[in-house]
Hints:
Elements: H1 3-11, E1 19-21, E2 34-47, E3 50-62, E4 65-69, E5 77-83, E6 97-104, E7 114-118, E8 126-141, E9 144-158, H2 160-165, E10 177-178, E11 183-194, E12 199-208, E13 216-220, H3 221-228, E14 239-243, E15 255-268, E16 271-280, E17 288-291, E18 294-295, E19 309-312, E20 317-325
Parallel strand pairs: 1-7, 13-18
Antiparallel strand pairs: 2-3, 3-8, 4-7, 5-6, 8-9, 9-10, 9-11, 11-12, 12-15, 13-14, 15-16, 16-20, 17-19
Amino acid sequence: MSQKGFAGAAAFGTKTFSNTFDPGLLRGWFVRPDDWGLNASVQQQILPRVSVEATYTRRWLSGFTATDNRAVSTSDFGTFSITAPSDPRLPDGGGQTISGLYDVNLAKFGQVDNYLTRAEAFGKWSQVYNGVAFSISARPGNGFTLQGGVNTGSTVIDNCEVRALLPETSPTNPYCHNEPGFVTRITGLASYTVPKVDVLISSTFRSDQGQPLAANYNVPSAAIAPSLGRNLSAGATSFATVNLAAPGTVWGDRVNEVDLRLAKILRFNRTRTNIGVDIYNLFNSDAILTYNQTFSPTVAPGPGGWLAPTSLLSPRFVKFSVQLDF
């Protein structure tokens, strides 16, 4: 065995590390990620057996970590911009200029010396949610229960100061200030127990806003070179993936689902048996849950194209259950 081969065999199974951690992250107070929340609610009866409630929620995260590649500095990156293809499917029909994109210079390409430390060492990094919820609950009697609510809120993420000093963290994602807008959810519940025969009929409804979507475009090096002044460091045949749709400009379809439950209560001495049938997705909605978010100007809409469905709401199905209490 050669000396080189022997050295490789000796290193087999030994620990190797690609990242170095700031010792300040490993011990001490207030060095781990924080998750804070504030809730304030008001409830009021407006009619006999009918009440309404309003809730405000604020949630904010802090204590973020950032990865500093110490092998490179800000000056080791070139900047470029691209022009989105003209396409009626894109926001405003496409054609907009997307700037603030980075590519490491060829001399430092592939060099890695990652140092994980607190993001605040480089600037502000915040994530804040503000939302309000309104609900109504009614029990008019005779076995009826009705509930419904609306919840809407917005999450804002900002790490622009960190990205400006550490462009390697997200070189081709210029949306360091992410504010897609309000996301709204509607829910409802109704139940009724038929007297004397002890038959329960209940139904739930939910309506969820679709997710914000991306248009991830693989831009070839040749299209970037005029702005960057050179090919991408990865080579003339490489590409950079750039999202052509700013967060909140393209949304998935709203997802609506109705579920139904029928149950019969049987009593024998001290035992109680609940026999039920649950029907999920009663109206067999085929709402889209996830999408293909890779954009290609040469692939027409349809299977394999941008925003083609990749998963749907589970089709209608039935579940039978028996619960015995004694």
